Structures
1.
Amino acid sequence: MTITKPPRDRERRRRDVLDRLEREEDIWVASADTDGVPCLVALWFVWHEEAVWLATRPANPTGRNLAAGSRATRLAFGDTRDVVLIDGEAEVYTREEVPAGAAEAFLAKTGWDPRAERATYAYYRVRPRAVQSWHEERELPQRHIMRDGRWLGGA
């Protein structure tokens, strides 16, 4: 006998997404270059002041794509039964430009300080513009919990 849980409402899914942003260590980062060639990597991140902060080398494909305002910047958690997709706008900061609070939050969460590396690293702030979250098919109809940078209310 299969027991199907009722779908979570938007507020519950929002809380669950914010919880995952605090506790998850890695996030999938999908970007594309100006020709539309995709790149998908997992990176450490921190959720700080309503944005996802990433760090990577500016010369690698993800760094170049994010700095160029790539056509597709998508962040993702989860497996096929517990999905979170975040579409956002990325801004690049050199290690000299990164706000101290963001860099310190990144260090506190990951234990790594890209500012201290000999190699050049940059920070990328991704501000969510759209968020989708769902557990299995039952939540697909109401999967959108943020649009145009604003959390949606209601069911």
Note: The longest strand covers residues 82-94.
2.
Amino acid sequence: MGSDPITDLEAELADFWRRGRARTRARARAIDPRLDPTCYPLLILLSRHDAIPTSKLVADLELEKSTVTRQIDAVERLGLVERRPDPCDARARIVALTQVGRQKLDDVVALAVSNWRERLSQWDPADIRQLTELLRRLDDSESSGTGNTPR
């Protein structure tokens, strides 16, 4: 590593993101070999809720509406999600994981968590909590507008 901690951090994060994209591709293939890895974050977001309005998915994923619609279409064709009328707005639709989609995603996430537990088994739990908090702070500093990288 070099002498500048910010340069070192940028390089390490770039490598971490690259490895993360590879993990995402593998997890998407484990759910369904035809699943586009770019749809994986959509499935993860849906897994945290019973159902989500499309407009919230667009906002939370920070993608164009047309992109999110194409992703929903793709995972719907695979039987992983379904659209339903929004009970709060007759003009809108909500999106939810199907039972099959939730089970497949739960299995993949459980394996991922198991792998993280194995990799971090020798770490002090306080270090893991501190890393989690530091990553959250780093993300919060970017999303609050103090970073200068476009999102």
Note: The mean pLDDT is 92.
3.
Amino acid sequence: MRLSILDRSRTRAGHPDADGLTDSVDRAVRAEQLGYDRFWVAEHHAVPGIASGSPAVLLAAIGAVTDRIRLGSGGVMLPHHQPLVVAEQFLMLAALHPGRIDLGLGRSLGFTAPVREALHDDRRDTFEHDLSDLRAHLDGDAAVTARPRSKGRIPMYVLATRRGSAIAARLGLPVVIGGPILADPAVGGLLQTYRRNFRPSLGVAEPYVMVSLDATVAETDDAARELALPEAWAMARSRQTGEFPPLESPEDIRGQAWTTQARARIAASLDSAIAGSHRTVQRALEQLAERTGADELLASTSTYDREALLESDRLLREIVEA
């Protein structure tokens, strides 16, 4: 598998939100030095635990301090934007950083009802039409010409649910699969259907599958699970409070009261992630490749300890290179 990073600019308790952005920039520089294929950033609106709401702006900052690694969005949430505006943003990125820009696209409507209302969510599902419209704008085939025009083609990727994978197959686009669907025993059949129904498109001759999940590596299994605890805790808290919080340190987390429900959710999150020693993670990745036939792993790992996260990135790269 090829190996890439999806960085969500996670904020940390006791630190300003801006640190989440500068940490993302620093991590991208390190990922390029380690030989990662891509570095993607996310779009989340009004979420306390995530600093990035504008992938194009963050990618411009990262592009200015890197030279080779591909940069992209994981993803731009197309229901919140007009295709022409997205095309202009990414054409500008491609003009500034030729041959390095990817455009991952999703259709999340927002984390909470107030956020969806603030984004003027009208609940119409025009995702497939908007993808086609965006492709036309990027290629210069629409009724109006998005600028700046530049050489080369910006690859598009679909962050997919079950229906999203069907759309990706019809439009001939690579697909990104992540989240709870990965734990579903039917995921293999879903991807088989995507590959079987894939219609080649300009620049994309064959189906392509990226799998996105947390992958944390440390000296021991216990140490890796401890690093993965802050993200699992934040997810459990979001289910309880409706708000996705900044990452807390494992020490602070263990000093708080855990409900039985939170304990079960944390255990489930840790079990669904890939977290362990070199040997454990290598075995888990081999099983993942066998189960999904993935062409690429998009590691969405985050943890409170930034130095431990960078070391995990290094160890993960070593495993995939081996």
Note: The domain at 2-221+276-321 is CATH 3.20.20.30 (TIM Barrel).
4.
Amino acid sequence: MPPPKTSGALSVEAAIAGRRSVRSFTAQPLALEELSQLLWSIQGITGNRSFRTTPSAGAVFPLKIVAAVGGMGSTVLPPGLYSYLPQEHALLPRRIGDCRPALTGAALGQESINTAPLSLIIAADYEITRTRYRNRTERYIHMEAGHAAQNLYLQAAALRLATVAIGAFDDTSVREVAALPANFHPLYIMPVGHPPNIP
């Protein structure tokens, strides 16, 4: 993917002020540069290769990001599922085909997933953190997922895109649709796209 940018036209204050949960999207596909920037904002590498864009307790990084690209969801990528590889800042194809209808069904029929060109699934392996933090595992992982989701909200706002955090879904169904390994638990589905009121 294209390398991420570390400066932009919109200030962080303006991105915070403009951040909203949006559930309606146009059919306009996302450019590869936009997808690159969104993924980097969630789990990208910063500076030293041990640092990332979101804090992680003990720097163990238990999160996994899966990109579900819809039909005509990208100007370059075919529809399908892709795993984000932070160290390489690359996408690994996992499954070909538009999984938005199945993912919508797993999320109790929330149509924003079906209409957005892209949905990013944030999942976590609890055992990665549990080996170090034991009874505080859930707390730390949920904090980390929240940091990642907020970064995505702000990056989307900075790109004049929009997203919404979805937490109502059947975990087993989402795991199957997203081709997640059994040890990863889905925490968020975040549809992303161009909102109707922004050209």
Note: The chain has one domain: 24-193.
